[in-house]
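Anyone? Bumping this.
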Amino acid sequence: MSAPRPRSKTSPVATVLVLDGDVLVRMPLCQYLRDCGYRVLEAASADEAITILRKPDIQVDVALSDTELPGSMNGFSFAVQARSLRRRLEVVLVSTLTRAVDAAAKLCDEGPALMKPYDHKLVLAHIKRLLAARAHNG
Amino acid sequence: MPTKGLQILVAEDEALVRLMLADGLREHGLQVIEAVDADEALSILSGMPIDAVVVDLHMRGFKDGLAVAQYVRRHGPTVPVILASLETPSIHEQPLFDAFFEKPYQPDAIADWIKRHHMGTSPLKSRQSA
């Protein structure tokens, strides 16, 4: 397998790496950030995120991570390791779903498009609906 | 039949491979949902409409790409399932898949296949809306 197609280190499009172990949370968050104009990379665990950060050709400007992650490393341990790999990386840790969505909305405010594509509360409601449907389906 | 905005589910447990594939498909205007294993893929498939599935055969966890393909065949038999794997499927497994791309593959080739073969089939609907 060839290496991932790298983006230029000077790419004007800021890249956010989203870490969340639940696909039903991660997916809408990532889509919201993409709609804001960011390039978004996804990781379900700290190990996956570290694998990405170890590739110097892959631009990552911000890591948005849940504090609770599957695997051997939680969000705090990830933040320490991530900053040791990328000194200038901004790491945003969030401990609840509401804070994750708020953090994404804040990134949108500061983001490349300087606008939110839609109300971030819709993202929160969407995630809650997905989680409820999964619980209902067992 | 317009293909931009088609929802493609990618199930691949190697982060860098998934990143490359998802990026490559997005560059073709496809909407990509990333799953890191079969459980995540099944979670997505049961919750939202999907137009095509690209899946690795062996992934970490108890379930694999076959479980994903079998789910699609049961719930949305017209939805294309593309196997993107290092291993060739066995003769018994082959009917589950519409196409096979051996690693290392070019994401452009998979995107082209999806665009060529999307004939406006009904997307796989969630169990709730089906």
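Late reply, but here is one note on the structure posted above: Confidence is low (pLDDT under 50) at residues 126-130 of chain B.
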